[in-house]
Design goal:
The complex is a heterotrimer of chains A (337), B (297) and C (239).
Chain A (H helix, E strand, L loop, with lengths): L18 H20 L2 H26 L7 H19 L3 H22 L5 H21 L1 H4 L5 E2 L12 H23 L1 H11 L1 H6 L4 H27 L1 E2 L6 H14 L4 H17 L6 H16 L5 H9 L17
Antiparallel strand pairs in A: 1-2
Chain B lengths: L1 H31 L6 H18 L5 H28 L6 H23 L14 E3 L4 E3 H23 L1 H11 L1 H6 L4 H27 L7 H14 L4 H21 L3 H6 L1 H15 L11
Antiparallel strand pairs in B: 1-2
Helix pairs in contact in B: 1-5, 1-8, 1-9, 1-10, 2-3, 2-4, 2-8, 2-9, 3-8, 5-6, 5-8, 9-10, 9-12, 10-12
Chain C lengths: L1 E11 L2 E12 L3 E5 L6 H8 L7 E6 L2 E2 L5 H6 L2 E3 L12 H12 L5 H14 L15 H14 L4 E5 L7 H16 L3 E5 L3 H7 L2 E6 L2 E6 L1 H6 L1 H8 L4
Parallel strand pairs in C: 3-8, 3-9, 6-7, 7-8
Antiparallel strand pairs in C: 1-2, 1-4, 4-5, 9-10
Helix pairs in contact in C: 3-4, 3-5, 4-5
Classes of the chains: A mainly alpha (337), B mainly alpha (297), C alpha/beta (239).
């Protein structure tokens, strides 16, 4: 068997590719490109926000589902990106693109810091520490009103300037960022980095014994995902043009988590789609008011209990026949059979 | 000096109440081995139970509602434990550590939004236990807070008695040390888990009911007490009863004194919980076992 | 291959798991490491392997001090190990399990070259047909072989085996025995922890006995077998 030089983009990090999978992705992309032709401003906005959440939920699934680090700081990184861009724009007059770039870098740097600090933490401690980090950031942003305008909200320049009031170009930009992030994460996941992350998730000590530089890859996972969250946040800020500390309350983290888990926390695409579907559903069910989130909260708990892999990931599995054939086999009998 | 005493008294009173709630959390960690990320929401439940009962049964003395709130919290806790947590200890859950974190966080999310949907976002305040302030010689303390503190102290004392002197306390201690050995002597650890979770939730609910007249309730009122409880149990040592009591008092004092002495008083108040959080992160980094926690390899 | 362990100590809180262990291996030595439960065998292997840091003493591998190195760095120096309870990566395929150590230590060879090598290893272990199966669906014995395969991928000079025969039925035991012998004949050194006296006696020309973190015997299996200190350690009697 000669070397297979074709790039492999497995949905689940398994070893099979599927032409069907790419075809479906292409169709979905074409539909996405055509969306502005049949959606009005309001719903277009909903979908743009949904894409924002999709970036957050898929990148969180990379860190948590794939890499096994269940961090509660993800929305904080998104806010860090947004506020960096916002503050640079407001106080130094820097243009949005530069602000966004710096937002990504700052989020990434802090992500490296947090990732390094939590290296040896067990899951519960990691969760607690990142909750504390997120809350401290929120309190700081809320408290330092000179810099951030606190609860009153910080105004950002629209990315495309004040002349362009149509949402359509913003739609394509957010879609573009989402697709770019997904492709990047996909590539990462199918590379050896993805394999190392999974090995670390499976058994950190064993991975180390097999030569995997656990420190490097755990921190890398934090760095990359926090940069992606920062990017999403910074661009979000320059789209909605006003941000407040509420974008990083813990319930927002809960929402992102719910999106990833309901979609399928070990599957980037499923998590992304989970994000889009849930955000759109939240809009569709607007008349139910607060009950919408009650339903999703209940759904989250039930799925955790009974359908750990989420709702969408198993659908992909059966549609595209992903995964090693042993999944369909019965568990081998113990010892030596 | 007066300022210091006044702050310290407030700190101590709040500290005792914090300790009560943290004790619930530490018991849950000690027996079930999990961190209850919905602990603050049981606190919230206690506050709302107090408010809702008292607003429909106006003749009732507010103090009577406190044990009721505790019972409601305990009941919810019991049911949740049975449905969602028991499977962990029956080995029916993959990656249980992760699951416990996510499912309790999910419960938190669910409860906050449920309250929001049913009662609405606006703050509510149940009637005071006792009106006015009490003069303690050098300073005045709100009667409500003093009552809350005193009751917490009594409850803490009762709990310590139960844990150290009664059969059920011994059973709990046995299970926290070695589940299997406890099973050998006939202690049903699954039953102990349910009792403990219910008790922990009940304690949080009681704390919530005790503080509701002082601070009023909103659906997300549990967020800060939740985080504070994490800080306390990490500081005191996860699973250590002594630790949660000391930790509670320390945090109560720290919050009060730091807020009071912070150079910019309005900022100081806003950053009240931040002080605890910073301590928290430092403890996690440098002395994860806390003050009295068990060494783990 | 030169392994020098000098006065190695490892404390856990108040417990002295290793209490001044000194041991030398060179070339293709095959050492059987035995001792009663809790004598420190796994601790020794874990400390050499970089999972534990020594409290005192030194570990020199080919002249380099490796005591403070992390586990992945130790693996990089050419020391491979298996675990007492198999720790293959359960939710990854057999092939991926083999690729992880290979790509971690020598990514420059490229995935497809490593895949070829992996298939050779799998052929050797007669597990090639399982290569796309998840490790968790393998039987216990197959998982043990898989771990062995992981070790083989990176061609280490020293292999530490922690209870390679434990819980394995006789037929598979023979197989593992053969593999160890084959690898040994390729010039690899071994430290093998085992409670299975028969296998250990047949395999090794040198037996090291640990008790309470100390080496109480080191030499020819026949001699060690009769050593009163060794007998006492196992029987736990004072005489």
């Amino acid at each position: 068997m000669t070397g297979d030089r074709r790039l492999r983009f497995p949905v689940l990090g398994g070893s099979s590719t599927s032409r069907l999978q790419w075809l479906v992705a292409l169709v979905v992309l074409v539909v996405a490109l055509l969306v502005p032709t049949f959606l009005q401003t309001y719903w277009l906005h909903v979908v743009i926000i949904a894409y924002f959440y999709a970036i957050l939920s898929s990148s969180w699934s990379l860190l948590a589902g794939y890499g096994g680090q269940f961090s509660f700081g993800h929305v904080a990184f998104s806010a860090i990106g947004a506020y960096t861009a916002g503050m640079l724009g407001k106080h130094l007059g820097w243009p949005p693109l530069v602000g966004i770039l710096l937002g990504v870098l700052v989020a990434g740097l802090i992500g490296v810091g947090i990732g390094a600090l939590v290296l040896r933490f067990k899951p519960a401690y990691l969760a607690l520490f990142t909750i504390a980090f997120s809350e401290i950031m929120r309190l700081l942003i809320r408290g330092e009103t000179q810099l951030t305008r606190g609860d009153q909200g910080l105004h950002l320049e629209p990315l495309l300037g004040t002349d362009i009031i149509s949402r359509v170009p913003y739609y394509y930009i957010m879609l573009g960022i989402l697709v770019a992030c997904l492709l990047f994460m996909y590539w990462l996941v199918s590379s050896r980095i993805g394999m190392f992350l999974r090995a670390i998730r499976e058994d950190e000590q064993a991975a180390a014994a097999r030569g995997v530089d656990v420190v490097r890859y755990k921190v890398l996972a934090f760095a990359i995902t926090s940069m992606i969250a920062g990017l999403a946040g910074a661009f979000y800020g320059h789209y909605v043009t006003i941000i407040s500390p509420n974008m990083m309350v813990l319930s927002q983290m809960g929402l992102v988590m719910a999106m990833a888990i309901i979609g399928g926390v070990e599957n980037l695409i499923a998590a992304a789609i989970g994000g889009i579907l849930i955000q759109v559903s939240l809009e569709l069910l607007r008349e139910f008011g607060s009950w919408r989130l009650v339903i999703f909260g209940a759904l989250l708990m039930i799925i955790l209990r009974f359908a750990r892999n989420g709702l969408l990931a198993p659908v992909f599995r059966s549609l595209f026949g992903m995964g090693p054939r042993a999944e369909l086999r019965e568990e081998a009998t113990a010892d030596g059979a | 000096m007066d300022f210091f005493l006044s702050l310290s008294t407030t700190g101590l009173i709040m500290g005792v109440i914090y300790a009560l709630m943290a004790l619930g959390l530490t018991l849950i960690y000690s027996i079930l081995g999990i961190v209850n990320f919905a602990h603050g929401e049981f606190y919230m439940m206690g506050g709302y139970t107090a408010y809702l009962i008292l607003s429909s049964l106006t003749g009732l003395h507010p103090l009577l509602v406190v044990p009721l709130a505790g019972l409601v919290g305990a009941l919810f806790g019991w049911v949740f434990e049975l449905l969602f947590l028991r499977p962990i200890h029956q080995d029916r859950i993959e990656r249980p550590d992760e699951y416990a974190i996510l499912v309790t966080f999910g419960l938190s999310f669910f409860l906050i939004n449920l309250t929001l949907a049913v009662v609405g976002p606006y703050p509510h305040r149940p009637p005071s236990f006792f009106e006015g302030t009490v003069n303690l010689g050098l300073m005045n303390v709100s009667a409500d807070r003093l009552t809350a503190g005193a009751l917490s102290l009594v409850l803490l004392g009762a709990l310590l008695l139960i844990i150290n002197k009664t059969w059920i306390g011994k059973a709990l201690r046995a299970v926290s040390q070695d589940k299997h050995a406890a099973a050998v002597v006939g202690i049903d650890s699954l039953r102990m888990n349910s009792i403990t979770f219910a008790a922990g939730a009940g304690l949080a609910a009681v704390a919530g009911a005790l503080l509701a007249p002082s601070f009023s309730v909103t659906p997300d009122v549990g967020a800060q007490p939740s985080i504070r409880s994490y800080v306390i149990i990490v500081l005191g040592g996860m699973g250590s009863i002594k630790g949660s009591i000391f930790g509670g008092i320390i945090i109560g004092l720290v919050e009060s004194l730091a807020a009071g002495y912070f150079p910019d008083p309005s900022r100081g108040l806003r950053y009240k919980t931040a002080f605890g959080l910073v301590i928290f992160m430092l403890v996690l980094l440098f002395r994860p076992t806390g003050l009295f926690g068990r060494e783990e390899q | 291959m030169e392994l020098e362990i000098r006065n190695l100590t490892k404390w856990f809180g108040g417990i002295r798991a290793l209490d001044g262990v000194s041991l030398n291996l060179s070339g293709d030595d095959l050492v059987g490491l035995i001792g009663p439960n809790g004598s420190g065998k796994t601790t020794l292997v874990n400390t050499i392997g970089g999972i534990y840091k020594p409290t005192g003493g030194q570990i020199l591998f080919d002249g380099e001090a490796i005591g403070t190195l992390k586990a992945n760095q130790v693996a990089r120096r050419g020391i491979g190990r298996t675990f007492q309870v198999t720790r293959a990566f359960r939710r990854m395929t057999v092939m991926e399990n083999l690729l992880v150590p290979a790509l971690a230590l020598h990514p420059e060879r490229g995935r497809s070259a490593w895949k070829d090598r992996a298939r050779e290893v799998l052929d050797f272990l007669t597990m090639d047909h399982l290569r796309d199966d998840y490790a968790r669906s393998l039987s216990g014995g197959q998982q043990k072989l898989l771990e062995l395969g992981q070790v083989m991928m990176t061609d280490p000079d020293l292999i530490l085996l922690d209870e390679p025969f434990a819980g394995v039925h006789p037929k598979l035991m023979e197989t593992i025995f053969d593999y160890i012998t084959t690898l040994h004949s390729q010039g690899k050194a071994f430290i093998i922890i085992s409670h299975d006296m028969t296998s250990i006696f047949t395999l090794s020309r040198r037996l090291v006995v640990l008790n309470y973190g100390n080496i109480i015997a080191d030499g020819d299996p026949e001699v060690v077998k009769e050593d009163p200190a060794v007998i006492e350690a196992y029987l736990g009697e004072e005489e």
